[in-house]
Design a protein that fits this description.
Layout (H helix, E strand, L loop, with lengths): L2 H4 L7 E2 L4 H7 L2 H5 L3 H10 L3 E2 L29 H13 L6 H7 L1
Parallel strand pairs: 1-2
Length: 107
């Protein structure tokens, strides 16, 4: 069954390229997606839903974190901060990407 039919129109679906489980089990964004990880980040920020950015992505996290262990993130120089800021700004300012309750109130 399609998601549009399974969930009410006012819910927010979260889309992401990584989270704590994906990172621990499958690796970093560049490790999973290779040079296309930026394309997948753009996709996850522009499909109907809410983009999720995981700890360390804006600093190009380059290691798998330990599962159920405290593992420090080396924040480095935030090399992808501007990239993710642009994606989040696009998602919140472009009406074509609005969804959920915001969309229903405006239209």
């Amino acid at each position: 069954m399609r998601d549009a039919e399974r969930f009410p129109k006012n819910v927010y679906r979260m889309y992401f390229t990584s989270n704590h489980d994906e990172n621990s089990w499958n690796g970093t964004d560049p490790g999973m997606y290779g040079p296309n990880f930026e394309n997948f980040a753009v996709l996850s920020a522009t499909v109907p839903g809410m983009p999720l950015i995981y700890n360390g992505q804006e600093s190009m996290l380059d290691k798998q974190l330990e599962f159920f262990e405290k593992d420090q993130i080396d924040w480095k120089e935030y090399s992808y901060q501007d990239f993710y800021s642009i994606l989040l700004d696009l998602n919140t300012t472009n009406q074509a990407l609005w969804n959920g309750r915001i969309w229903r109130r405006l239209y």
